[in-house]
# Entry
Amino acid sequence: MAVIPYNRVVDVSLTRNDAFPSRRGFGTQLIITTESVSGKVDTTTRTKLYASIEEVVADWATTTSAYKAALSAFSQNPRPTQIKIGHVLDDSTMTTAELAAQLDLLEAYDNDWYFLTIAANLRDVAATAAILTWTQARNKLAIVDSNDEETTDPADTTSLAAANKGNFDRAGVFFHSNTALYPAASLAGYMQTRDFDDAGTAYTAAFKNLPGIAADNISSADLTAVTGFTPGEGQSESAGHMANAYIDIGGRNFTVYGSTLTANVFLDEIHATDWIIARTEEEALGIMLNNARIPFDDGGMQMLAGSVRTVMQVAGRAGLIAMDINQETGEYEAAVEITVPSVFSVPESQRKARIAPAIQCRFRYAGAVHYTTIRYQMAF
# Structure
């Protein structure tokens, strides 16, 4: 007996929206070193991923700087899911140009990482400054250890932080007098665990405990010179060098103040900025890929604005967006304002070229409090 197919009376099809761009990661730290392990991490195999300290020690001797930096990263709680170790060639007289060229080769081999830290063999050498310039031109974030005691002198102009303050906002310098410790790798290990795609993951790099790192024995005057932070006023280049430090107050060890080399620009806000831009690019491209077309009308502009709304919702859930009181309802709402222009706000020639008008999104970053004043008045 013949069986008549369903499509004689009903035609059903299903199209899967699977043409989405891959999501860029912000959770991997790359530790660069001039050390190498033949066949593992060397001039041929520039980087290698490690998911535990046990995997690191299988390749790297415990006496190596790469191992010690990785140990500091994996000592965080919760610990990062992975780190990478990368090799740059050192001819013992490496210049900034030569280190920049090595970083180019490393990037060409493997660009799937976000945080950049260094092993001890790259600290406070002439070429180190190349890391700041190289990172500034990319969507990366560098945290560089320095043991240069001149950083504690407010008049210093030669240390890594002093010579470069005010010029870079994609790099932070972490000063510590103990050359055996790796506070930058430890702090980056904490930052790796903050995934803004998840709820409640906003953070500040200040006030963080770094397991295994001893607080620096530093005076208040030296701390101001290192960080440029004046209580009640904030950071300034005239007060100090915009570097970070690890101190003891009240018997608790913690980082201060989580800053980049630019005054009052902090590591967490650069991290958040890069995440927002990347996710918006991905969402907008996904909309274009998964629709037959985006019509050049006001409805089409609303479709594109959906990418912004989606990212802002996730950012709000993560805690990146400040919550302000709605004066009409008295309820807290995310401080986000999205303006979707009419298609007639641009000339016909632009519409003919299929270039949409710019969608504007204004939001207030939640940030973090790094200093507070409390005053009591006792009456009788």
